[in-house]
Specification:
With 108 residues, this protein is mainly α. It has a domain at 50-94. 69% of the residues lie in helices and 11% in strands. It has helices at residues 2-22, 24-28, 49-96, and strands spanning 30-31, 34-37, 40-43, 47-48. The strands form 2 sheets. A two-stranded antiparallel sheet has the order 1-4. The longest helix has 48 residues, at 49-96. It is elongated and about 85 Å long.
Length: 108
């Protein structure tokens, strides 16, 4: 299974490198971004296309990690509170049960 995974990642890497070399001129083309807001125009300095793609990918991964991380923190907090509640209920249940008596080898 591990060998198959390595083979698949090798093929994906080879295809990615081939794609990058075949599209080198397009990816190195510089673009400038602009935002027109209430009559004001904001313009960026020229940025290569590959930098825009990589920064978009990075921001997407960062947003996903933050979103999932916050969900995990909430879930852990809920699990901890439910575990505390369970322990409290177990102690309450034990306090209501009669103490175990040891039977002696005689008839009642």
């Amino acid at each position: 299974m591990r060998a198959l995974k390595v083979l698949i990642w090798g093929v994906v890497t080879l295809l990615l490198v081939t794609f990058l070399f075949q599209n080198r001129e397009v990816l190195l083309h510089e673009m400038d971004l602009q935002l027109v807001l209430f009559g004001f125009t904001f313009r960026s300095m020229p940025i290569p296309l590959y930098a825009l793609i990589l920064s978009s990918l990075f921001l997407g991964v960062l947003a996903t990690v933050l979103y999932c991380g916050l969900g995990n923190l909430r879930m852990r907090r809920t699990v901890r509170s439910l575990q505390r509640e369970n322990e409290n209920l177990q102690q309450e249940l034990r306090s209501f049960s009669p103490p175990a008596t040891e039977s002696k080898g005689g008839a009642p």
